[in-house]
Protein backbone atom coordinates (compact mmCIF):
# COMPACT_ATOMS: atom_id res chain seq x y z
CA UNK A 1 0.00 0.00 0.00
CA UNK A 2 2.87 2.37 0.79
CA UNK A 3 4.40 1.98 -2.67
CA UNK A 4 1.00 2.51 -4.32
CA UNK A 5 0.49 5.67 -2.23
CA UNK A 6 3.89 7.03 -3.27
CA UNK A 7 3.26 6.27 -6.93
CA UNK A 8 -0.27 7.70 -6.94
CA UNK A 9 0.65 10.85 -5.04
CA UNK A 10 1.69 13.01 -8.03
CA UNK A 11 -1.20 11.68 -10.13
CA UNK A 12 -3.92 12.35 -7.56
CA UNK A 13 -2.46 15.60 -6.24
CA UNK A 14 -0.27 17.38 -8.79
CA UNK A 15 1.39 20.50 -7.41
CA UNK A 16 -0.62 23.67 -7.83
CA UNK A 17 0.58 25.98 -10.60
CA UNK A 18 3.21 28.40 -9.36
CA UNK A 19 4.35 26.22 -6.46
CA UNK A 20 8.08 26.72 -5.89
CA UNK A 21 10.35 23.75 -6.46
CA UNK A 22 12.29 22.65 -3.40
CA UNK A 23 16.04 22.18 -3.72
CA UNK A 24 18.78 20.47 -1.78
CA UNK A 25 17.89 19.74 1.83
CA UNK A 26 14.34 21.02 1.28
CA UNK A 27 13.76 18.39 -1.37
CA UNK A 28 15.14 15.64 0.88
CA UNK A 29 12.93 16.76 3.76
CA UNK A 30 9.82 16.87 1.56
CA UNK A 31 10.62 13.41 0.22
CA UNK A 32 11.01 12.22 3.81
CA UNK A 33 7.56 13.59 4.67
CA UNK A 34 6.08 11.93 1.59
CA UNK A 35 7.58 8.57 2.56
CA UNK A 36 6.46 8.90 6.19
CA UNK A 37 2.94 9.90 5.11
CA UNK A 38 2.74 6.94 2.73
CA UNK A 39 4.09 4.54 5.39
CA UNK A 40 1.55 5.79 7.92
CA UNK A 41 -1.20 5.51 5.30
CA UNK A 42 -0.15 1.89 4.63
CA UNK A 43 -0.14 1.15 8.37
CA UNK A 44 -3.59 2.71 8.67
CA UNK A 45 -5.01 0.66 5.81
CA UNK A 46 -3.51 -2.48 7.41
CA UNK A 47 -5.00 -1.52 10.76
CA UNK A 48 -8.41 -0.97 9.18
CA UNK A 49 -8.16 -4.30 7.34
CA UNK A 50 -7.03 -6.39 10.32
CA UNK A 51 -7.50 -4.43 13.56
CA UNK A 52 -11.27 -4.65 14.02
CA UNK A 53 -11.31 -7.94 15.98
CA UNK A 54 -8.73 -6.67 18.47
CA UNK A 55 -10.47 -3.31 18.97
CA UNK A 56 -13.88 -4.98 19.28
CA UNK A 57 -12.57 -7.35 21.97
CA UNK A 58 -10.80 -4.60 23.93
CA UNK A 59 -13.67 -2.12 23.71
CA UNK A 60 -16.27 -4.72 24.74
CA UNK A 61 -15.26 -4.13 28.34
CA UNK A 62 -15.42 -0.30 28.23
CA UNK A 63 -18.05 2.37 27.78
CA UNK A 64 -16.45 3.42 24.51
CA UNK A 65 -18.11 2.13 21.31
CA UNK A 66 -15.66 -0.16 19.51
CA UNK A 67 -16.47 1.24 16.06
CA UNK A 68 -15.66 4.75 17.30
CA UNK A 69 -12.22 3.74 18.58
CA UNK A 70 -11.55 1.73 15.43
CA UNK A 71 -12.50 4.66 13.17
CA UNK A 72 -10.50 7.14 15.27
CA UNK A 73 -7.32 5.08 15.14
CA UNK A 74 -7.76 4.34 11.44
CA UNK A 75 -8.38 8.01 10.57
CA UNK A 76 -5.44 9.22 12.65
CA UNK A 77 -3.19 6.94 10.59
CA UNK A 78 -4.57 7.32 7.06
CA UNK A 79 -5.36 11.04 7.12
CA UNK A 80 -1.78 12.28 6.89
CA UNK A 81 -1.31 11.18 3.29
CA UNK A 82 -4.23 13.17 1.83
CA UNK A 83 -3.63 16.04 4.25
CA UNK A 84 0.00 16.56 3.20
CA UNK A 85 -0.78 16.15 -0.48
CA UNK A 86 -3.76 18.49 -0.45
CA UNK A 87 -1.43 21.22 0.80
CA UNK A 88 0.75 20.72 -2.26
CA UNK A 89 -2.20 20.67 -4.65
CA UNK A 90 -3.89 23.64 -2.93
CA UNK A 91 -1.01 26.03 -3.46
CA UNK A 92 -1.57 29.50 -2.02
CA UNK A 93 -5.39 29.38 -2.01
CA UNK A 94 -6.18 30.56 1.53
CA UNK A 95 -9.81 29.40 1.47
CA UNK A 96 -8.63 25.95 0.44
CA UNK A 97 -5.98 26.03 3.17
CA UNK A 98 -8.56 26.86 5.84
CA UNK A 99 -10.81 24.02 4.62
CA UNK A 100 -7.88 21.56 4.66
CA UNK A 101 -6.77 22.66 8.13
CA UNK A 102 -10.24 22.46 9.65
CA UNK A 103 -11.14 19.14 8.01
CA UNK A 104 -7.95 17.41 9.06
CA UNK A 105 -6.83 19.14 12.23
CA UNK A 106 -10.22 19.31 13.91
CA UNK A 107 -10.94 15.68 13.00
CA UNK A 108 -7.58 14.68 14.51
CA UNK A 109 -8.37 16.64 17.68
CA UNK A 110 -11.54 14.56 17.96
CA UNK A 111 -9.76 11.26 17.26
CA UNK A 112 -7.21 12.09 19.96
CA UNK A 113 -10.02 12.66 22.45
CA UNK A 114 -11.67 9.38 21.46
CA UNK A 115 -8.43 7.41 21.89
CA UNK A 116 -7.79 9.14 25.24
CA UNK A 117 -11.35 8.26 26.36
CA UNK A 118 -10.78 4.62 25.36
CA UNK A 119 -7.39 4.53 27.08
CA UNK A 120 -8.76 5.98 30.32
CA UNK A 121 -11.81 3.69 30.22
CA UNK A 122 -9.53 0.71 29.68
CA UNK A 123 -7.21 1.68 32.53
CA UNK A 124 -10.09 2.27 34.92
CA UNK A 125 -11.14 -1.39 34.65
CA UNK A 126 -10.02 -3.59 37.51
CA UNK A 127 -6.73 -5.23 36.69
CA UNK A 128 -6.89 -8.95 36.19
CA UNK A 129 -4.17 -11.34 37.18
CA UNK A 130 -2.36 -12.67 34.13
CA UNK A 131 -3.28 -16.16 33.06
CA UNK A 132 -0.86 -18.78 34.31
CA UNK A 133 1.72 -19.91 31.81
CA UNK A 134 1.94 -23.56 30.93
CA UNK A 135 5.43 -24.74 30.13
Secondary structure: helix percent: over 70%
Radius of gyration: 19 Å
Main sheet?
Answer: none
What share of residues are in beta strands? under 5%
Give an account of the 3D structure.
The protein has 135 residues and is mainly alpha-helical. The chain has a domain at 52-124. 73% of the residues lie in helices and 0% in strands. The protein contains six helices and no strands. Helix 3 (52-59) packs across helix 4 (66-78), helix 4 (66-78) crosses helix 6 (94-123) and helix 5 (80-90) runs antiparallel to helix 6. The N and C termini lie far apart (39 Å). The relative contact order is 0.14. The mean pLDDT is 90.
Topology:
Layout: H1 2-12, H2 25-50, H3 52-59, H4 66-78, H5 80-90, H6 94-123
What's a quick, concise take on this entry?
Helices cover 73% and strands 0% of the residues.
Amino acid sequence: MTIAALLLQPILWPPAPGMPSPAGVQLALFIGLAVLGALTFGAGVSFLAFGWPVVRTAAAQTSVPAWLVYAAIGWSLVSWWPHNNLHLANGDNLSGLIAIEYAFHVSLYVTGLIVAWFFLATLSRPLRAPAPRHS
